[in-house]
Amino acid sequence: MPDHPPSIVILTGAGISVESGLDTFRDKNGIWAKVDHRELATPEGFAHNPVKVHDFYNKRRRQLRDTRPNEAHHALARLEGAWRDNFLLVTQNVDDLHESAGSRRLIHMHGELNSALCEACGMRGPWKTDMSTYSQCPHCSIIGRMRPDIVWFGEMPYQMERIYRALGKADLFVAIGTSGNVYPAAQFVEEASAAGARTVEINLDTSDNTQLFDEVIRGPASTTVPAFVD
Ligand code: BV8
């Protein structure tokens, strides 16, 4: 038995939002199958063509307005309510469906569609509907340096220290709807295992790192996650 209250870390990926109507990234109809991630999800792509990158994120932001959390998001919010302080939900998703379902102990490690980042002063704040390449930062007043608050390839994900601290004392680690393709998130299972956690994968299909988990549950998140949680 652990010498502290049992602690849970959950990692979610695009698969948890599929049944809410959002696309994944790496499936054959996924986002990166239709557009080039080097053009749209790298700092170099943004420097080369900011208008194109803003356009891509503006469309995805608009899509969010009509999207609702599904049973999997709701189940994780219930789990947090039952577990309280010894719970951390880390999402790679940039949608706001976990918050809409009621999750609060939540880290958006790859940023958020509804947030803006000023490249000049580092301010992070709400994305206003009329923001564009030519917007002025509400904090430092510099014009033309506002970007989507998204962690692009080659950039450091958010709150890594807090995440590794939680993984280092986790008793249970569950990865839901993620392909295990993008680092550092894909390596969290090994961190948790090294800390002695039981590790569980919940995914529709086989992920790239299935073999690293103690237990694998196959099926759509909207049914498998509530069944696991309740
Ligand atoms: C970093 C935001 C240093 C954009 C994203 C070689 C060259 C250059 C770089 C690298 C390299 N090798 C490694 C790297 C690092 C790189 C990386 O991992 N590249 C990979 C691709 C090789 N990583 C980085 O650059 C990261 N930063 O490493 O910094 C560092 C060093 C040490 C410690 C810390 C940091 C930054 C990565 C951030 C990338 N940002 N996107 C946007 O959203 O527009 S990528 C992106 O992939 C997504 O946003 C998402 O966040 C992430 C993971 O994707 P998934 O969520 O897993 O989605 P995917 O489509 O892949 O899978 C969906 C799964 O759902 C499938 O398995 C499917 O079966 C399942 N599913 C489907 N339906 C359902 C379901 N499951 C359940 N129910 C269903 N109904």
TrEMBL record:
Q: Which cofactor does it need?
A: Zn(2+)
Lineage top rank: taxon = Bacteria
Mention any one GO cellular component term assigned to this protein in its UniProt record.
cytoplasm
Sorted alphabetically, which Gene3D superfamilies does this protein's record hold? SIR2/SIRT2 'Small Domain, TPP-binding domain
Reactions it catalyzes: N(6)-succinyl-L-lysyl-[protein] + NAD(+) + H2O = 2''-O-succinyl-ADP-D-ribose + nicotinamide + L-lysyl-[protein]; N(6)-acetyl-L-lysyl-[protein] + NAD(+) + H2O = 2''-O-acetyl-ADP-D-ribose + nicotinamide + L-lysyl-[protein]
Tell me the ranges covered by the Deacetylase sirtuin-type domain, including all copies: 1-230
Tell me the keywords, alphabetical order: Cytoplasm, Metal-binding, NAD, Transferase, Zinc
Where along this sequence does the record place binding of substrate?
Y57, R60
The active site annotation covers H110 (proton acceptor)
Q: Cite the binding residues for NAD(+).
A: Q92, N93, V94, D95, G177, T178, S179, N203, L204, D205, A221
In the record's own words, the domains note is: 2 residues (Tyr-57 and Arg-60) present in a large hydrophobic pocket are probably involved in substrate specificity. They are important for desuccinylation activity, but dispensable for deacetylation activity.
What does this protein do, in the record's words?
NAD-dependent lysine deacetylase and desuccinylase that specifically removes acetyl and succinyl groups on target proteins. Modulates the activities of several proteins which are inactive in their acylated form.
Name this protein carries in UniProt: NAD-dependent protein deacylase
What is the native source organism of this protein? Mesorhizobium australicum
